Amino acid sequence: MVNALKNHPFAVEAFFTNSTVLTFAIPKEELENRIPKHLKLDTFKDKWAFVAIAMVQTQDLRPKGFPKFMGNNFFLIGYRVFVTYTNKAGKRLRGLYILKSETNKKKMQFMGNIFTHYNYTTTDITITKEKGKTEISSLASNFKVDYNDNLELVNLPDDSPFSDYKEARRFAGPLPFTFSYKKENNSILIIQGVRQNWKPVPIHINKYYFNFLEEAGFKNPILANAFSIKNIPYHWKKGKLELW
């Protein structure tokens, strides 16, 4: 029963007031042994794999169909690898495999770890905004990102493997699926996200530091793409389990 509860047994909805995503290019060899059975790295030019760090301010998060007053506001951080999964019907799905999940509230950690396999931990979050400049930081998780999201012209980060933002968005933009692997029964859990008016806006990263990247042992992660999305209705469908 406990394991079944973790399989996203019901749909969930929320409103994303802001989502900031930084995507890092990492040589595929550094990630090949970090993803589970049945998933494959989604690589670019057969060289680069990608890790995205998504920082999301959610509002009114609740089971889908419940009234807004029953929802809660949380800050969520997901560290995810871009992967592909070919389902039992033979369809290739592009999505994400979660390496680590954090939130700013114990309630979300508790509930999230009952109904998901994401293994949430709680951390502190500070957000500072001033004249188009935003800083998101955490002392406990030891990260800080400083960016501008009001510039008319934003270039790709230096050394990005992508030639332009069109290519970056096509390959390393938002993806609809998240996958979890359960070794005990050799299964893949598929979670599909559904969004409206999804228009990622490139942001200029002034500076950043994520201790996670060092702890993970990545030798030279390259910032490949960064974008922000604001005021988006979003929901996750009930989980779908495929046994192999």
Describe this structure in words.
This protein is 11% helix and 51% strand. Strand 4 and strand 5 form a beta hairpin. The chain starts with a helix and ends with a strand. With 244 residues, the chain is mainly beta. Strands 1-3-4-5-10-11-14 form a 7-stranded mixed barrel. A 4-stranded antiparallel sheet has the order 7-8-9-13. The chain contains 4 helices and 15 strands.
Structure keywords:
7-stranded mixed β-barrel; 15 strands; 244 residues; 4-stranded antiparallel β-sheet; mainly beta
Q: How many DSSP E strands?
A: 15
Strand content: over 45%
Shape: globular
Q: How many distinct helices?
A: 4
Biggest sheet architecture: 7 strands, mixed, barrel
Q: Whole-Å distance between the termini?
A: 20 Å
Mean pLDDT: 94
Poorly predicted runs: none
Cα Rg: 17 Å
What's the assembly state of these chains? single chain
Task: Write the H/E string, N to C.
Answer: HEEEEEHEEEEHEEEEHEE
Tell me the helix content. 10-25%
Which class of secondary structure composition applies to the elements? mainly beta
Strand order of the largest sheet: 1-3-4-5-10-11-14
Helix and strand arrangement:
Elements lengths: L1 H4 L6 E16 L11 E3 L6 E16 L8 E15 L5 E12 L2 H10 L4 E3 L3 E5 L2 E6 L4 E6 L16 H8 L4 E6 L4 E9 L5 E2 L1 E7 H5 L6 E15 L3 E4 L1
Parallel strand pairs: 5-6, 5-10
Antiparallel strand pairs: 1-3, 1-14, 2-4, 3-4, 4-5, 7-8, 8-9, 9-13, 10-11, 11-14, 11-15, 12-14
Short description:
With 244 residues, this protein is mostly beta strands. Helix content is 11%, strand content 51%. The strands form 2 sheets. Strands 1-3-4-5-10-11-14 form a 7-stranded mixed barrel. A 4-stranded antiparallel sheet has the order 7-8-9-13.
